[in-house]
Structure formats: C-alpha cells, structure tokens
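Milestone M4 deliverable, item 7.
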Amino acid sequence: MIEKSFLNKIIKNPYLIAKLNFNQLILVFREAVKLFGEENLILELKSKNLQDKVIVIGDLHGDLLSLMRLVEIIRLENPKYVIFLGDIVDRGLYQLECFILVLALKIKDSNKYYLLKGNHETLEVNQNYGFYQAFLNRFKDPKKFNQVLAIYNALPYCVLLNESLLCLHGGIPEDFNAINRLRGIKTSEVNLIYENTAKSLLQIMWNDPKPNLKGFTESFRGREIKFFGEDVFTDFMRENKLDYLIRAHERFPEGYKWFFNERLLSIFSSANYRSMLTPIPASYAIIRNKTVMPKIIS
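Output delivered:
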C-alpha cells in the first residue's frame, strides 16, 4: 500500500521523482495496474449536476511545466473528472516525471482521474521516440520496462461522458459499431477480443480528422491508419448518438483546433513539444453544462 504522504510529496514537487529508486517506482506501477485493470475499455462516466466540470488534457510528451500548471488549474477549478487522452511520454525532457505524476494523481483519487491509451503508450513507439532509451539509461535493465508495459496493457481507450460526448486519443474507427462492441469489457480482458477489434483499437489511437475530405483515406502514419472526413464523422456521431468528440494526437499553431462545425475538438497540452525554441500554446478543454470550451494554458 502506498502512503498518501508519499503521493502528496511527489504531486507537490514532481522533480523529486528523479530521485526515486526503482523499488519505490514499482509500488506506483503495481498500484496503477491494479486500478486500470478494474476499468472498462470504454469508460462510461456520468454527472447529474449540470454545474459539474470535466477537464480534458491532451498530449504531454514529457512537458512537466505544462502538466504542473494543469495540476494547479485542476486545484482551482475542482472538476468532477479529469481525463488524460494519452501520450504522456516520448520526446520531452521530463517523461518519467510526467508519467509518474499522472499515475500518482490516479492512485490518490481514482474516481476523479482517468488515463486513456494513446499511440505513444506502446513499446514500439517508445523505442523509436525516446522513453524506452531514457528508461534504460536510468535503470539499466530492459526487464524493468515490463512494469511500464503492464500499465499500457491495462489502459482504457475511450471515455463516454453522459452518453453524449466521446473522448479518445486519435479518431473514429471505420467500424461505427466498435464503441458499442467494446462497452462493458474490462481492460484486463482485451486479449480475449483483440483479434476481432485490433483494427478499431489501432484507429482509435491513430486516426486523424481532415477537412474537405470524403470518407476514409490512407494516412501517412501507417498501414490501416486513416484520415476521415466530415461525412463519415457525421454518420459515426449519428450512429452512436453523440454530440461532441474531443481528441488529441496533433499539434496546431493555435494550440487547439475545431473541426466539422465545431463538433470535434482537437487539443494538445505540450507547449515545449520536442523542446522547440518557439513553443506553441498548450491547450486543454473544460466541459460544463453540455458545453465544450477549449482553453490555453497561460
């Protein structure tokens, strides 16, 4: 059992995470795996109070300063739920710190904080974009990374909020019935249905919206990954009886971008992506009383 004082300490000062040994991190990893393993692949969250707020956070990619600012915003706004859309690690300067901080928040208040699986919550992507090597440089033993992979394998893919708003990392799958078919299935049971849902799960993590496009078309991102246009997006939303979709996965000069008659919001919460000298604004979203409001982290 993790002491609450330990969690409070690293939440208050995440830079202390760099001083933790692996035995201390194992406690965090194992507790997080247990919590995620009890969740469903499609999280269904409801709020009866129209004044309740929900905060949605996009890609962080090791940007600890933006994450710390978001933690302060969460403290001030006091939302009912906080949803991280994935891509916590890779590319940034403080990847492990961001990852452990998000896990600490989840462990401390598991009914408030939720983390979804993004395309960077996989071994292959981590090996190509930095987190795996950074982890190996610090802890020396590749087998220790299995603790991280256990978390990745237990993460949910979507949040369905009040049955009318969908949060995910990438985009809509070609199979419009995928969301319904994934409902009620525990993350720990994903291997039992993976063969029949692998393509949809991949597309939920990787697909991108594209204006002035019809249907689904091939993407530069890889095999079976798609761009999707407003026509299929509208059909998907109608089929699933949804009003809004919030996703991450792409960065924009403005910090966020609306698509498709302002029914799809794309946010990105890392300001110093790839440690760029000219950062873009980091964004997040607040949902309140069926209204979706993009915000810039000031």
